[in-house]
Design brief:
Uracil-DNA Glycosylase, subunit E; 206 residues; alpha/beta; globular
Length: 206
């Protein structure tokens, strides 16, 4: 078992938020292997993910897969998938959608994400939604970063809006155009990995 697989086992056994009184039950959810060179970081699993045990398998996940397909990433080659917090936080008390994890929950879960990225060393990280963007990029307006990327010494960050139906951000045509631009950037960066032989080796090894 490699170091990332051992870390996954530790994460799935985590009950820190239950012990702290933030959650009634813990079911950390993530997926991927140490061969992945593209990673997705979302906000937190949803209710459907609790039943499937896999990230991004609900309605939001279906939409995200459509975006990935547009960017040249098919179902057979899904990236590493994780989130800022690893357990379903429950439904929001008001309005549609799931509850946003509290700052305390985010801090409890932060070491797991840090260790994942340190071991995986992804070349491209897709930041899905404002919480993931805030965590790894900084607090910014979506319209100012969607359609852009940040090159860091050992990785590229590409923000994407959250695909949740509860979000109204994509109702604006200008924002849809920014999403299309962002997906072109994802395609370009993934093709770059393929041309370097990195993503190709990953695909063939699965």
């Amino acid at each position: 078992m490699d170091r990332l697989a051992r870390l996954h086992r530790e994460i799935r056994a985590c009950t820190k938020c239950v012990a702290a009184g933030y959650l009634a039950t813990a079911m950390p959810i993530l997926a991927g292997t140490s061969r992945d060179r593209v990673a997705i970081v979302g906000q937190a699993p949803g209710a459907i993910e609790i039943t499937t045990g896999l990230p991004f398998t609900g309605r939001s996940g279906r939409i995200l897969r459509e975006w990935l397909a547009e960017a040249g990433i098919d179902e057979a080659h899904l990236p590493y998938r994780t989130a800022v917090t690893k357990c379903f936080p429950g439904k929001a008390k008001t309005g549609p959608g799931d509850r946003r994890p509290s700052p305390a929950e985010i801090e409890l879960c932060a070491p797991w994400l840090e260790q994942e990225l340190a071991l995986l060393k992804p070349r491209v990280i897709l930041l899905i939604g404002t919480l993931a963007i805030e965590r790894l990029w900084g607090r910014v307006a979506l319209a100012s970063v969607i359609g852009t990327l940040r090159r860091e010494p050992d990785r590229v960050l590409i923000p994407l809006p959250h695909p949740s139906g509860a979000s109204r951000w994509l109702n604006e045509p200008a924002n849809k155009a920014l999403l299309r631009k962002a997906l072109r950037l994802v395609r370009r960066e993934v093709v770059g990995l393929d041309s370097a032989g990195i993503a190709g080796r990953m695909h063939r090894s699965r």
